[in-house]
Design brief:
By secondary structure, the protein is α+β, with helices and mostly antiparallel strands. Helix content is 21%, strand content 34%. The two termini are 22 Å apart.
């Protein structure tokens, strides 16, 4: 088995490090969670750099700060049935594949991927993310080994 190919819209299982945790000096995420890849930077001769947004069950205080994942999409991805949002206010950047990817099935590297978000959702996510980051900036935590 091998790692899936990173691409925009792929939902992965990832040990996300929140920006507040990084400021406190943490280097590891507290728990594994789904994350949505929103950017893949390809580099000649080097592994790609990936930007991932966290998925959380916590509703945003401001609706502009997150995008809710529709229940049918969550079901198709094999996620739980609780409401979930893709957070637009921060991200993690890492070299693919990074040490913080988590396989759902031990030894099966491909199991880090839940699947793809639908094209319409990706389009809305990209628009909302661009708008949010233009207005309020972004917080991206660069992850290293």
């Amino acid at each position: 088995m091998s790692w899936p190919v990173p691409q925009q819209g792929l939902v992965i299982r990832y040990s996300y490090l929140w920006e507040r945790e990084a400021r406190e000096g943490r280097e590891e995420g507290v728990k594994d969670r789904p994350g949505a890849i929103v950017l893949v930077l390809l580099r000649d001769g080097d592994a790609p750099i990936v930007r991932v947004l966290p998925v959380t069950h916590s509703a945003p205080a401001d609706a502009a700060d997150a995008l809710e994942i529709p229940l049918p999409t969550k079901q198709r991805l094999g996620l739980d049935s609780s409401r979930s949002w893709v957070v637009l206010t921060e991200a993690n950047d890492f070299v693919w594949p990074g040490p913080d990817l988590r396989a759902a099935i031990s030894g099966d590297l491909s199991s880090v991927a839940y699947g793809m978000l639908p094209p319409g959702f990706i389009k809305t996510l990209r628009e909302r993310l661009t708008d949010r980051w233009r207005k309020a900036g972004s917080k991206a935590v660069s992850r290293t080994e």
